[in-house]
Amino acid sequence: MTTYETIIGLEVHAQILTQSKMFCGCSADYASTPPNTHVCPVCMALPGVLPVINRVAVEKTILAGLALSCAIGPAAVFARKNYHYADLPKGYQISQYELPLCHGGWIEVEIKAEGKVKRIGITRAHLEEDTGKLIHTGDASLVDLNRAGVPLLEIVTEPDLRSADEAHAYLTQLQRILRYLGVSTADMEKGAMRCEANVSVRPVGAEKFGTKVEVKNLNSFRAVKESLDYEVARQIALLESGGRVVQVTMGWDDERGRTVVQRTKETADDYRYFPEPDLPPLVIEPAWAEAIRMRLPELPDAKVARFIRQWGLDLKEARVLAEERPVAEYFEAVVEAVTTSVVEPQTAKAVTTEPKTVANWVTGELFRLLNAAGVGIEAVKITPTAFAELLELVNAGQLNLNSAKKVFGVMFETGRRAPEIVRDLGLAQVSDADALTDAVKQALAKYPTEVARYRGGEEKLFGWLMGQVMRETRGKGNPAVMKELLTKALSSDS
Length: 494
Known about the structure:
By secondary structure, this protein is an alpha+beta fold. It has helices at residues 55-67, 164-181, 221-240, 268-271, 286-293, 300-311, 315-322, 325-338, 355-373, 384-395, 401-414, 418-425, 433-446, 448-455, 461-472, 479-492; strands at residues 4-15, 71-72, 75-76, 78-82, 92-96, 102-111, 116-129, 133-137, 140-144, 151-157, 193-203, 213-218, 248-253, 258-264, 274-275, 282-283. The chain has a 9-stranded mixed β-sheet. Strands 5-4-15 form a 3-stranded antiparallel β-sheet, with no helix packed on it. A two-stranded antiparallel ribbon has the order 3-16. The longest helix has 20 residues, at 221-240. The chain is elongated, with a radius of gyration of 31 Å.
């Protein structure tokens, strides 16, 4: 049997976050609104209307292009892409063809199965308008034009992907970048990011690509992987049986887990592209492009590398913290705060809380509480300064770890500051040697049998005895001081 190589190129459409639509003033926030309520003569394509370009959509497309290492052309031209479909009110889509805003870029993705980083070429990233939406009910199909005209960023790769796993890695990285930029929510399940795949196979070693098939209706990461795996297997089986692959557009049937033919594949000629006569060429002045470049944030991979280099985090926790921009910014704000925080005068001391300690608290206690509450980082009531104040209380020996977690839980629920919670709950850590010596004596007096067993060689009982001393202090004893005093007491009486 011939061994085949898979060739995949992806076309991703991501809705751009803007207040208004691409060519009119209608609100682009159409989610959960009644059908056909965010419409006007422009996006309904009534006679005599003229489009006006959304500047924010242009700038966000350029921002995305820069993040994907694309070149920004000096000019871009909008074109009419002609095809007739029920949810396309004009009978054409305003898009870009010969002169897109961005071209010739790349994105690097980690291929975990192979333990390597691969560069995927970006052919173009251009701006267009979204279509409406069909709602099928019984024998009828209803048209909702709320989505028609929403700004859409299309990103087209080179045929550089070689497996469904690589496609998944690419989409994950692209989604992360678009979210970091604030360009799109890139939520596939909600339709804010949609994917089409061009897939073909060829014998290993062959130079010429096989006949490609376009697969549509991919609205989840799972659908992308399953559809590509299915289509590759289908094409190989067809070739092995003596058949040939025909260039068609396939849809992914999620219920049956298979691709199905939708129509013969169109070419650029079929769309009869020509410049949009109602829109002038869009001139991108160098100063404008440079001003947009200055807005580029530090991207996820660079942030991970800096967290490791600057603060000594390990790769796993650095990735967790850098996965979402709001989480990364919150973490960094807490780290910044611990370098400037001042605990109340009676407990003030030199700051020594390490960034790694902050990372442990954010990925541990904070994430646990967020998951339990079912909310995101934006709902956190604990300010970075208040977070740092709590950590400094622990660091200063004023609060032990268990008590600190209790205080943190109250802070999460109420937004109150740590010192007042500590006072109200009476959780201040006891470090006084005399008080703790009494606690050690009381604990040892209660458990003479266990003390004798420890002194007889059962050293594992030390931890249990520590727990009894902690109980005597109602959980407020300083563990380090208690350990020293307990060790001394068990030795001196032997």
